[in-house]
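Summary for the funding panel

The consortium committed to producing paired sequence-structure records for every protein in the target list. Below we show the first two records in order, beginning with the earlier of the two.
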Amino acid sequence: MGKKKTGGKYIRKRDLMQMIIDLFQQHAGEVFDLKRLFRDLQLKTHPSKMLCVDCLEDLLADDYIKENERFCYTLNAPSQVMEGTFRRKSNGKNTFVPNDGGEPILVAERNSMHAMDGDLVKASMVARRKNHVREAQVIEIVKRSEKQFVGTLKVSKDYAYLLTEDRTLANDIFIPKAYLKKGKSGDKAVVRVVEWPEGAKNPVGKVMDILGRTGENNAEMHAILAEFGLPYTYPKTVEAVADRIPKEIPQQEIDRRRDMRDVLTFTIDPHDAKDFDDAISIRVLKDGGEAGKTLYEVGVHIADVSHYVTEGSAIDKEALKRGTSVYLVDRTIPMLPESLCNNLCSLRPDEDKLTFSVLFKMNEKAEVKDYEIVHTVTRSNRRFSYGQVQQILEEEHEASEQDYNSPGDVLVPIEDHVPTTTFAPGTDERKLLLVLNRMAKELRRRRFQSGAVDFDRCEVRFNIDEKGKPTSVYFKVAKDANKLIEEFMLLANRTVAESIGKVPKNQKAKVIPYRIHDVPDPTKLMKLGDFVSKFGYRLKTQGTKGEISKNLNKMLADVHGKAEQNVIEMVTLRAMMKARYSVHNIGHYGLAFQHYTHFTSPIRRYPDLMVHRLLTKYATGGRSVSPVKYEELCEQCSDAEQTAAQAERASIKYKQVEYMKEHLGETFEGTISGVTEFGLYVEVNENKCEGFVPLRDLDDDYYEFDEKNFCLRGRRRNRSYNLGDQVQVQVARADLYKKQLDYKLVSRTDN
């Protein structure tokens, strides 16, 4: 429809529509007849009034307004004004996420009021056009988010900008000289937006911190942490509080605990670990066993962090805010101050330590006859690396067959550490270690028999020089030494959860944070089945939980060692639900446990610390805590865990790009790991560095994206590029600024 004249002025339908929406929005709940509408909108000509009636009909059809009686209108419902979170996207596809959990609603940039990502806003619905998605407009910014932006400063004589790396903001941030904090061009900086004037193209920001020069390792790692809102330094005030904690254990505290310092105890950790929060002990019980069989006491001992970190203290508040330790490629950002995690609470050899323990009475078949959860004092006899334990298992021919040819943890020769206990060949100590290994294998066998899903994937690791530069890539695969520790930690976690969650009939279980994992979404499972079928694999997607998990395991076992292994494992993981924390127990699907929690890592996970405190409280007759409060804490910890994982992946990606930058122009064998309408993702086989092949570079045909078959298909020659295809690529570009690798396709290698 063309322009209409009103009071000597022309008005467009879309402009009048917006005026009507604004009027109803400003007077929500009020009734407007035509006379009032014409008056308030200053519509004086017949064409403008008819155009208004036309707009009202459209709004009625969209259910934006309702007609109470003939030609009397009101906003359809107060719920048309909603409160929620604004999500900004650099591509302009901003969304509003209602607090009531509704679906995200599109917000055009013109209707955003310059809201920033994460802002708490009020929004109203925009009248929907025919065949268009629902849209909303921001009408009020209730609370600005604390989000900060990371980027590189560009400083000139008259102005300064932050060239942001954030994908939520398409615009650079203007920085007045007074807000520059002595930053210089090329500095990596953290900036907070302080305003975004109406009509201005760029927001105005203030430098909060200078991280260093762009490209320097420390600056880039700190930038990754800042990008995800994670701390990159520990507050000095909190460290000072931790430093004042007495190092000596009072005799009074030892007297009230189970003294296990005379029991063979050891830790098994990565060779470069600094915090040892768990240890294992084993001894033969003197009271024998059943039917002449030996009975063992196996102890899982966990650092008693709750003894030193009291709820509500300065250290506790900082730990809760962090939620978890963060593990980047070249450093650990700890949840607790270093004096606690690496010293006071770390189960270092030949030092008395306060621990919280689960003591099992077990036979050689790994059957648990009885258990106790008790506060203890322990003394580790030695520190093992995974490589050292694996060496013992292989020397004694007790390792699994595939372990002998698989990469594992870096082997530090046993002679490099002078232990209290030698574990020399033929000794009782070494024999007991082998007993633990056999028990762990039996526990693992039963777990998978019960329906656990096997998601053991190799991890990419880098050898880093003194400047933080990656010099080589290697893979870490979980071998029997790793699995030994894993199974006993799982057993302890499950046992602790059952001790609280399994109660007699008609009794209510006390509140505890569970680690839960929901069953896979049936739709995602069906898509996974369709996907693997293209590689010749069958996956049963219907049946009981146990049947589905067994079929998943069979499929994962079948793909092991095949070219498509990594792709199928990755797609399978994406089909699974994410594990999280909750006080509402639904079980753990991936582990096939009805009850499961996290108890074994309070140095690096806050939920474990909560569990320790609640166990102590309930053991002394304390009442159950508020489920509402602890569910909120669980959600906070789950969010922190996801954020930490994102930062860890970002650091790996940065190092991959940095590593491949030294290999520009070189050719590698790879596997197509992703297919999009814009091109192909290829993962190099020898180092798992994933890069992108743009569609524009595939110039031998006109390729179209076939979403159903996960491929790009040529229009003329019908040639296709599929997930899992083997190709040869050349490293074309390595952009550290964008953390992006671009490859050039050389040839296919699987023809």
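The next record, for a separate protein in the list, is shown here:
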Amino acid sequence: PIVIKGGVSPSGVAHLGNVNEIMRGYFVAEVLRERGHEVRQVFTSDDRDPLRKLPRKLADADGNIVGLGEVDAGALGRNLGKPYTDIPDPFGEADSYAAHFAALLAADAERLGVDIEMYSNTELYEDGSFDPVVERVLADVDTAREVLSEYQAKADADYVPFNPICAECGKLTETVTDIDLDVETVDYVCTDMEVGDETIEGCGHEGTATFREGKLPWRFEWPAQWQVLDVDFEPFGKDHAEGSWPSGVDIADTVLDIEPPEPMVYEWFTLNGETLSSSAGNIVTVPELLDLLEPEVVRYFFALNPTRARDLDLERLDQLVDDFDRFERAYYEGVDDDSLTAFAEAAYPHVVDEVADERPIRLPYTFAAVLGMVDDPTLREKLAHDEGHIPDDADEATVEAALARVEQARTWAERMDNAYNYRLQADIPDVVRRRDDRRARFAGRCRCRRRRRRDDSGGDLRHRPRPRHRTGRPLCGRLPALFRRDAGPAARRVPR
């Protein structure tokens, strides 16, 4: 089979940016399957990497973002420098911090309908899958060092491309003092690890580790994965295109004597105009996004041209949904844009779970948000029928599917606190009734200003008087009191 791979180091929150790589591979896999190929889509959790710094946010098993104060943050703080698989789950549920993160990614892929095979790097080291690669690299350490020196200044005469796990403190160390290929071990000293401007202190222990009790540095580990998993194709972000990828290709060719996979470099997308970043807190998770959008709309977003940088603006999700609806219409009926119609014909079958015989009924997103002002489902359905968005002959399942967008649009209005964040009261509030009683009492005291004009026959035409309070101000209508809003911008006219 053709093997398509992605991977991530399990740190912080599994957010939409991490899923980017999964979705890029998914669309390639789907097209290849459509052409009759057998395809496996694999995804590695680079979980033998060390925890280098504390994340600002985490996500629980359901994908809800929480702060460090809501979990056992000490489980992380006490274990800086250790592999992710050796760090307890801060939520106390999974076997490790790494297992918790990997489960989140697997759940996100399942939510989006993508079938992936998850691999743990730690397990690949422990079961011996990496042994032949580690042995080959360390058997010709001079060549490995020479190749890496073209890309990293740290590859000096003492550099050995293997990081043992200290048997005393459990941290990874970069200081190897001797290699024994016959018994497949290395001797090491547990020294400090520099992380930016910070230092993770080593314990100074001197010991011996097997090839299964450590890891290759990233620039060697990536091509090692290509060999172990027999990778044919791998998408990756543009940050790797100028660093890790060239060195990986060189190591694959010169050190491992293997062919690198076919690459696909994709642009990042931003969130609300800013870079996605767990450390900065500018993230959105798949569960959060699926509260606002159908899965097919999320898949559509990823299907758009991967070579172009794009922004996911949560304030303007209505535009994304409108674009998807037009994309869907282009597939079924064609539109006055040949390129969009061609794109829809190629991509739409891979964006939806199943291609229906007829175009699904979709409520315009902003109209769905307007219906979200109403709590009564019967009234929602009536309004949708009255405005012509749901045909009169639609069956119950079609109506239910169409109205499902209402709750998503309503949630969007609430979270963005925009002009659609209102509620229409089902009953007339007491304040309106009291106002009506007051009006009845002073109705007789209202004075009316009447304009007169004479018709051709000389008679007076009296225009209907406009009721006014004795102060001269017009009486207020009822409508504002029928709406409830706790906060947010002033009301404005909204489109149907």
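Regarding this second record: The chain is about 40% helix and 15% strand. The CA atoms of residues 237 and 266 lie 5 Å apart.
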